[in-house]
Design a protein that fits this description.
The chain has one helix at about 10-25, and strands at about 40-45, 45-50, 55-60, 65. It is of the alpha+beta class. A hairpin with a 2-residue loop joins strand 2 (about 45-50) and strand 3.
Amino acid sequence: MRRRPSTIMLPVLVVLLTVGVTALSGCGGKLPSKNAVYTPAGSYTVQILATDGTLTRSATYAPTVKAR
């Protein structure tokens, strides 16, 4: 007689596979042509806009990057 795997094993397997695939597909810096080497020093403007139905909010930030 064969034992059937418990019902908890399938969700655990799915979680482990998801974590493994996510770790393998993360940004590891191995594709320099697709990853910027650095962010040049200077001032930047970043605008964030959020909309939920008819409600809209926006915020503007001005970060400054300094050279090291």
